[in-house]
UniProtKB/TrEMBL annotation:
<keyword id="KW-0716">Sensory transduction</keyword>
<dbReference type="GO" id="GO:0004984">
    <property type="term" value="F:olfactory receptor activity"/>
</dbReference>
<keyword id="KW-0552">Olfaction</keyword>
<dbReference type="Pfam" id="PF02949">
    <property type="entry name" value="7tm_6"/>
</dbReference>
<dbReference type="GO" id="GO:0005549">
    <property type="term" value="F:odorant binding"/>
</dbReference>
<dbReference type="GO" id="GO:0007165">
    <property type="term" value="P:signal transduction"/>
</dbReference>
<keyword id="KW-0807">Transducer</keyword>
<keyword id="KW-0472">Membrane</keyword>
<dbReference type="InterPro" id="IPR004117">
    <property type="entry name" value="7tm6_olfct_rcpt"/>
</dbReference>
<protein>
    <submittedName>
        <fullName>Uncharacterized protein</fullName>
    </submittedName>
</protein>
<dbReference type="GO" id="GO:0005886">
    <property type="term" value="C:plasma membrane"/>
</dbReference>
<keyword id="KW-0675">Receptor</keyword>
<keyword id="KW-1003">Cell membrane</keyword>
<keyword id="KW-0812">Transmembrane</keyword>
<keyword id="KW-1133">Transmembrane helix</keyword>
């Protein structure tokens, strides 16, 4: 996160540098940049061109850095996504399994052996057994159910997309 914020701040600084371009403040900024960089641009170009080249070089460096950073972080992002989706789906699977066992547990609680004067309680237990057969369903924005079948479909789609993108990258 700190690397991303630092890079974002570098883009902010670069934006400010371009805003200073062709103003009175360019001389002060260029003097500071000459102290930081010993690239001898001041000997080759006039003040505006030198400043512009420094800004463009900095922009190119930021683009190279973000590409390199993206290459490094891509596997981590994909693994994080897969782990998050897998943990949610496995949690939902576990919840569904436990919820599906509840009606049997209620039925086996010896409620049939209740005395005849507790008829209302027997009816209530029968109602709860019937109600317990409703297994909680999770969905994503009411678009699709989140269950093991959906998880497998998402994995298949993700692998297909990955395969297509990998083949396109190799062709380039």
């Amino acid at each position: 996160m700190a690397i991303l914020l630092s890079t974002a701040y570098q883009f902010f600084i670069l934006r400010i540098c371009f805003e200073v371009f062709n103003t009175d403040g360019i001389n002060n900024v260029n003097k500071k940049l000459r102290k930081l960089q010993s690239d001898q641009l001041d000997c080759k170009y006039d003040e505006l061109t030198e400043y512009f080249i420094r800004c463009v070089r900095h922009h190119e460096m930021l683009l190279r850095f973000t590409k390199s950073f993206n290459d490094v972080i891509n596997p981590m992002e994909v693994s994080q996504l897969i782990m998050s989706v897998a943990s949610i789906c496995l949690g939902i699977l576990r919840l569904s399994k436990m919820a599906s066992l509840l009606p049997d547990a209620i039925f086996q609680c010896k409620w049939i052996n209740l005395e005849s004067k507790q008829l209302q309680l027997k009816k209530d237990i029968a109602f709860v057994i019937q109600h317990a057969h409703r297994i909680p369903q999770f969905n994503a924005y009411n678009l699709y159910d989140m269950n093991m079948t959906s998880f497998v479909k998402v994995l298949k789609l993700a692998f297909s997309v990955y395969t297509v993108l990998s083949s396109l990258e190799k062709k380039e």
